[in-house]
């Protein structure tokens, strides 16, 4: 006998589209594929639009953001769309001036180094500032018509703090890391406030229709084990707990790049762990005991090699994960974002190989 909530969950599961089944560790006919930064500069279609508008304009214009979101989905026939935006729109909405410079990457002109600077930020109502993301989500959802899931996302509190304190990405994050070493109380205050904003932001995305959320903890791997648990994973866990209370059916993917504490991550209640190419999927699977789905993990550089090599590397990853038993799940992905000059023919080869060769791994 099932109670009402369980019955609803089962009905929900019946309606699930491919990629969502994998994230929920339900049987599916082949391994789904989508990839980090699938919308972007390696696509000529994106370049065409980007020539006319700068990056933040693209993010803030719902029609353009929706169009760019759908470009890779249509072109490669992918199993999920990822809403076009950036993790840094959250600090931008809090009042930090953001510039995304060609070849340099994102820069905040006035990084946060003091309590006074931090207090001046907007810690409330960032949802209204980020309404453009809601508008883009609504547009994309309409076009997708529930054929494939839409993935929403946010940076983790630590990764956003790293950019906010440092001011830019291409560094060793010495200001941000020194703050963790030297002023724990202030660090926790920042992380606490960011967590609250992220919960609101992701809740808004889910209410607008995203089917999955991913938390990008790109800079988790810069921390010691103890720091990672205390300053990064703790806050990701708070976010997961809070979201699960309101949205128990929305899968949550956690990507802590360069962090190998898979047992600890699997325990926070997320549905999937995204991993980079430095680990074996078999090992991650064994260590997490199939309690989460696993996303990964082709090295984006592999996409600069020959078609034959790409095919071999993709098959190696499918083989490394092994047979998908009931209660296990694999989503094929890159181990990090696709590189801006990746040849699109090679991306096609990766997608084709996953679709053609993954079926026998599903019983
Ligand atoms: O298709 C998709 O995946 C959606 C688009 C997306 C996502 C998920 C973009 C567009 N950015 C992100 C996430 C993001 N942004 C992360 C987490 C994932 C990861 O580690 O790659 C991070 C760390 C950022 C920060 C950021 N924004 C960078 C990283 C490099 C650095 O120097 O720190 C860069 C280059 C940006 C700008 C950006 N964001 C997205 C695009 C397409 C671009 C390039 C802008 C352009 O068109 O010139």
TrEMBL record:
It catalyses: uroporphyrinogen III + 4 H(+) = coproporphyrinogen III + 4 CO2. Coiled coil: none annotated. The keyword Transport applies. Its EC number is 4.1.1.37. It is found in: Membrane. Pathway: Porphyrin-containing compound metabolism; protoporphyrin-IX biosynthesis; coproporphyrinogen-III from 5-aminolevulinate: step 4/4. Residues 32-41, 151-167 form the Uroporphyrinogen decarboxylase (URO-D) domain. One of its GO terms (cellular component) is membrane. One of its GO terms (biological process) is heme biosynthetic process. It is an enzyme of class 4 (lyase). Keywords: ATP synthesis, Cytoplasm, Decarboxylase, Hydrogen ion transport, Ion transport, Lyase, Membrane, Porphyrin biosynthesis, Transport. The keyword Electron transport does not apply. One of its GO terms (molecular function) is proton-transporting ATP synthase activity, rotational mechanism. Belongs to the ATPase delta chain family. Belongs to the uroporphyrinogen decarboxylase family. This is Uroporphyrinogen decarboxylase. It comes from Potamilus streckersoni. The chain holds residues 121 to 483 of 483 of the full protein.
């Amino acid at each position: 006998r099932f109670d009402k909530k369980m019955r609803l969950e089962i009905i929900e599961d019946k309606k699930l589209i491919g990629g969502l089944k994998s994230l929920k560790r339900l049987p599916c006919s082949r391994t789904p594929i989508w990839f980090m930064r699938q919308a972007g500069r390696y696509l000529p279609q994106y370049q065409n639009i980007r020539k006319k508008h700068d990056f933040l304009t693209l993010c803030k214009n719902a029609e353009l953001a929706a169009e760019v979101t759908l470009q890779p989905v249509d072109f490669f026939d992918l199993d999920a769309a990822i809403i076009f935006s950036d993790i840094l729109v959250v600090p931008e909405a809090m009042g930090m001036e953001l510039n995304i410079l060609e070849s340099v990457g994102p820069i905040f002109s006035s990084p946060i180094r003091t309590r006074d600077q931090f207090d001046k930020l907007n810690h409330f109502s960032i949802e209204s500032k980020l309404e453009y993301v809601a508008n883009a989500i609504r547009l994309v959802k309409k076009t997708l018509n529930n054929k494939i899931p839409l993935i929403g996302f946010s940076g983790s509190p630590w990764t956003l703090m790293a950019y906010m304190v440092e001011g830019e990405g291409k560094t060793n994050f010495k200001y941000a890391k020194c703050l963790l070493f030297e002023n724990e109380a202030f660090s926790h205050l920042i992380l606490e406030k960011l967590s609250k904003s992220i919960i609101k932001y992701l809740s808004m995305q889910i209410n607008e229709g995203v089917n999955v959320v991913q938390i990008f903890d790109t800079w988790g791997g810069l921390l010691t084990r103890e720091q990672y648990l205390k300053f990064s994973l703790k806050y990701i866990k708070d976010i997961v707990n809070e979201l699960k209370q309101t949205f128990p059916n929305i899968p949550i993917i956690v990507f802590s790049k360069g962090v190998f504490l898979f047992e600890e991550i699997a325990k926070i209640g997320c549905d999937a762990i995204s991993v980079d190419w430095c680990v074996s999927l078999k090992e991650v699977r064994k260590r997490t005991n199939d309690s989460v789905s696993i996303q990964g993990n082709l090295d984006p550089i592999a996409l600069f090699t020959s078609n034959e090599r790409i095919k071999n590397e993709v098959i190696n990853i499918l083989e490394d994960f092994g047979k998908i038993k009931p209660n296990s799940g694999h989503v094929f992905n890159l181990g990090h974002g696709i590189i801006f000059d990746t040849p699109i023919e090679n991306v096609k080869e990766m997608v084709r190989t996953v679709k053609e060769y993954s079926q026998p791994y599903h019983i």
